[in-house]
Each structure stands twice: as structure tokens, then as C-alpha cells.
Specification:
With about 350 residues, the chain is an alpha/beta fold. It has ten helices and 13 strands. A hairpin with a 2-residue loop joins β12 and β13. α1 runs parallel beside α9. The radius of gyration is 22 Å and the shape is elongated. Bound molecules: 6-O-phosphono-beta-D-fructofuranose. The site of 6-O-phosphono-beta-D-fructofuranose (F6P) has 13 residues, from β10.
Length: about 350
């Protein structure tokens, strides 16, 4: 067997751990030849395709490395035209690929699904710090991102306390508030604002004003996809040739200006940005990524294609790519963490009763 492996979309802690586990599992269990595709789908769209052999030596020592040794792209779209799709399919044939393992987020899964429909046997592995892939309760990379944001919130608190300021920390996560919610709770944020729950700026200001009288400072954790009631998403920029062109970012500054008009305290905003995607994966993410990589190899060996590895109720499994493509898993409004947050007095930006 000859199996291709690629990483697509944004980088994420744990990608190398998956590459390592897929490779080791396939080498050890069926003696397959494993071919790394460089720069995501871009490597398969190129003529000639850009590849490198993955063997015991090349995956040794990469478990703890951030990023991806294969490189990635969130612009390359193998479905952009019939000619491009045909190039990808021809390249897969020329390379002698029996299957392709595509490690990526919802965008990569949608592209993988499209190629699978055209006859390329594909197994997907869910990756994203956003934790927003349908059918998978925990994607690797998320735990590391939450740890990074939690540390940032702790550090920000020092300045808030010392200067009596309102400190806003903006997280990534796109349209899902998982990072802001879990890191906000772990980092003792007083206010957590999520994309799933439009915030009332007056309700947030009231909390800050109340705290001005007592604790003197407020820490706010806001997901980049959050928006004020009656307001719009804050878009940082658009990447024209990306399958998902809109890049969110900047709501922290918007909120900063809104609050400054209403408060005596100084208000400051910090956008954490790509810091959240960097660095070595946590032990949890290394283990999860290793399990996902091994599970992908099992699916390949069992001939179960056009499926994505999943974790549901703590169990590894798989779902049809068709069931996850073009969807996002956001925080349900009845999620127990939201209830717990309210019950301990965290403001979620609305005036709902505690
Ligand atoms: O999906 C992962 C993610 O980091 C999002 O949280 C963020 O909105 C986006 O990617 C940023 O993308 P880029 O690296 O293209 O700016």
C-alpha cells in the first residue's frame, strides 16, 4: 500500500503527533509506504506534486513539535475548477496513492469529501484549536490553545489589579466560543463573551462599574466571533482566494471603545492572535493526536474511506465526511458550562438571571 498524508488549513499544536502516529501505525502494521504531501492540497495541485517520504527516521522526535513538518495551506482549493480537480486526481494516480489521510479542520474535511466523491479514497482527521468540528467532541490543539489563553488571562489580571483597569482579552475560535468559554473559566474571567450569545454592552458596563467599587478591576474574555446585540461581526480582513475568505478579529477593540465611553476606569484590549496556535502541544493533545493518527491508520487498513476520525462520549470512532462537511459545532445555549459560569456569577454579556 502507498498512503499519502497531508495537513490542511491553519497550523495547530498536535499536527506532527498525528503525522507520526499515522506513519508509525501504517509502517508497523502493514508495511505501507507513507508519502507526505507538502503544503496541504497545494502540494497535490502542483505539477509535479510536492512530496517527501515519511519513514521511521523522518517522524522521529516530532511528537512535541508545534506546527507541521509537512507545511500547510488554507488557500489551496482542489475543487476550484474541473481542471484543478483532475490534476489532483491524476497526481494521486501517478504517485500510486491507495488512499489519502487529510488532517484538517472543517474546510479541509469539505475539500476531502469533494475529492472522495470524485473517487479518491480519503480518511479525515479533525484538527482545530476552535474545537468546532461536527461529530467530534474534542479536537486536538484545543487543549493547548485553552492553556495558552488561560495563562494570558492570569498575566493580564496583574495589570488589571495594579492599575484598576478593565482588561479585555480577545481569543480566536471563529463562530464558536469554546476557547473563550473554557479559557475564560480556567483563567477566572469576570465576563465571558461568546459568538453564540450577542452581548448587551450596558450589561457588561454595569458589571465593570459594580467591580470599580469593590475589586477595582475586571477581566473580560471575548471570542473573536462575538458581536453586540443588534451589531455586526468584526472582520479583520478577507483572504480572497481562500475557500473561507473571512478572517475575524478586532471585536476586543470595538468593545474597548464601547466600554470606555461608559466607565471611569481605563479599558485596554489585547488580541492574542496566532500565539494561541503556536508552541508545543500539551500532554493531553499529544495523546489525543496520537490516538487520532492511529485510528486513521486503522480506517485505512480496514478500507473504510470517505470517513473522518471522531471522538464521541470519550470513544474513538468515525463518521461519514458527508455528515461533517460544511458545518460547525458551536456552543449550545444549554451547555452545562454556561450554566456553571452563570451560577458562579460570571457575566455572559446578557441580562439573563443567574
Ligand atoms: O480555525 C483556526 C483559526 O485560528 C481561527 O480561530 C482563526 O479565526 C483563523 O484560524 C485565523 O486564520 P489565519 O491564520 O488565516 O489568519
Amino acid at each position: 500500500m502507498r498512503i499519502g498524508v497531508l495537513t490542511g488549513g491553519g497550523d495547530c499544536p498536535g499536527l506532527n503527533a498525528v503525522i507520526r502516529a499515522v506513519t508509525k501505525s501504517l509502517l508497523r502494521q502493514c508495511g505501507a509506504e507513507v508519502v507526505g504531501i507538502e503544503d496541504g492540497f497545494a502540494g497535490l495541485m502542483a505539477s509535479p506534486p510536492r512530496t517527501r517520504a515519511l519513514d521511521w527516521r523522518s517522524v522521529s522526535g516530532i511528537l512535541m513539535l508545534g506546527g507541521t513538518i509537512l507545511g500547510t495551506s488554507n488557500r489551496a482549493n482542489p475543487l476550484t475548477s474541473e481542471a484543478v480537480t483532475q490534476t489532483v486526481l491524476d497526481n494521486a494516480r501517478v504517485l500510486g496513492l491507495d488512499a489519502l489521510v487529510a488532517i484538517g479542520g472543517d474546510g479541509t474535511m469539505a475539500l476531502a469529501h469533494g475529492l472522495a466523491q470524485r473517487g479518491l479514497p480519503v480518511v479525515g482527521v479533525p484538527k482545530t484549536i476552535d474545537n468546532d468540528i461536527v461529530g467530534c467532541e474534542r479536537s486536538f490543539g484545543f487543549d493547548t490553545a485553552v492553556a495558552t489563553v488561560t495563562e494570558a488571562l492570569e498575566r493580564i489580571q496583574t495589570t488589571g489589579q495594579s492599575h484598576g483597569r478593565v482588561m479585555i482579552v480577545e481569543t480566536m475560535g471563529r463562530h464558536a466560543g469554546w476557547i473563550a468559554l473554557e479559557a475564560g473559566l480556567a483563567g477566572a474571567a469576570d465576563v465571558i463573551l461568546l459568538p453564540e450569545l450577542d452581548y448587551d454592552v450596558d450589561a457588561v458596563a454595569a458589571v465593570c462599574r459594580e467591580r470599580e467599587q469593590h475589586q477595582r478591576f475586571t477581566v473580560i474574555c471575548v471570542g473573536e466571533g462575538a458581536k453586540p446585540q443588534g451589531g455586526a461581526l468584526t472582520v479583520a480582513h478577507r483572504v480572497a482566494d481562500s475557500p473561507d475568505p473571512m478572517r475575524l478579529g478586532g471585536v476586543g477593540q470595538v468593545l474597548c471603545a464601547q466600554l470606555q465611553q461608559r466607565l471611569h476606569s481605563e479599558v485596554r484590549a489585547t488580541v492574542l492572535g496566532h500565539v494561541q496556535r503556536g508552541g508545543s502541544p500539551t500532554a493531553f493533545d499529544r495523546v489525543l493526536a496520537t490516538q487520532f493518527g492511529n485510528q486513521a491508520a486503522q480506517l485505512v487498513m480496514a478500507g473504510q474511506f470517505n470517513r473522518m476520525v471522531t471522538l464521541q462520549q470519550g470513544q474513538l470512532g468515525s463518521v461519514a465526511l458527508a455528515d461533517v462537511a460544511h458545518q460547525q459545532r458551536t456552543v449550545p445555549l444549554d451547555h452545562p458550562l454556561l450554566q456553571a459560569a452563570r451560577q458562579i456569577g460570571v457575566c455572559l454579556g446578557d441580562s439573563a438571571p443567574q
